[in-house]
Design goal:
about 210 residues; alpha/beta; Rossmann fold; five-stranded parallel sheet; 8 helices; 5 strands; about 10% strand; binds shikimate-3-phosphate
Length: about 210
């Protein structure tokens, strides 16, 4: 136990999933899809899982049922992932690691990769986006800055691996992640290190 009262990541019994976390727009879905192809594992985005179950978009959930309801769904999905024993790749919504009850769940689910971006880089990627309810405000960049400041410690606490994903080519980011996983004893198919092709955008289906 660290002197902040938090358990260190090494003290958690890790499950076999690969979990991608990070701020909105940090590339979790696109990196997740490529990793799915390369590691031959199915990929799931928890936002999509929630949308499919509820039958409406995240924006509509926020609007009609409220953020609190959405956050409860996130925790419920995390519990299901924890009990899912087939190793998969999961990308979590940008706010999921913030809740104190979610953090131990995330850390036990599997190996957690935090895709880190600077606020200005997020803004560059999400300018004009209308699908993130939290950024539909007067000054989205200020909102990104304040949310990021608040959330960064949570992301760092959950992460086993931190990758800066701002200005790098996607292939380099993937290579870094694969190397980090290999260093942790993961078996990485040698062909995974080859540069991406269009097919790498197609995740494995079950
Ligand atoms: C949110 C991030 C979104 C989605 C919801 C709330 C957040 O997911 O879960 O809009 O609180 O940061 P992405 O990180 O996939 O955009």
């Amino acid at each position: 136990m660290s002197n902040t009262g938090h358990k260190k990541n090494s003290e958690y019994q890790k499950g076999g999933h690969l979990v991608l976390i990070g701020f909105m727009g940090s590339g979790k879905t696109s990196i997740g899809r490529s990793l799915s192809y390369k590691l031959k594992r199915a990929f799931y985005d928890t936002d999509k899982m929630i949308e499919e179950r509820e039958g409406i978009t995240i924006s509509e959930i926020f609007k009609t049922k409220g953020e609190k309801y959405f956050r409860e769904l996130e925790t419920q999905v995390l519990r299901e992932i924890r009990d899912d024993k087939i190793p998969r790749i999961y990308s979590l919504g940008g706010g999921t690691p913030v809740s104190l009850q979610n953090q131990p769940l995330i850390k036990t689910i599997g190996t957690v990769v935090y895709l880190r971006l600077q606020p200005e880089e997020v803004w560059e990627r999400l300018k004009g986006d209308t699908t993130r309810p939290l950024l539909q405000c007067e000054d989205p960049l200020a909102k990104i800055r304040s949310l990021m400041k608040l959330r960064s410690p949570a992301y760092e606490r959950c992460a086993d691996i931190i990758i800066d994903n701002g200005s790098k080519e996607r292939d380099d980011v993937i290579k870094e992640i694969l190397e980090e996983l290999q260093n942790r004893g993961w078996e990485i198919p040698p062909e995974s290190y080859k540069p991406s092709t269009d097919a790498d955008n197609t995740e494995n289906k079950e």
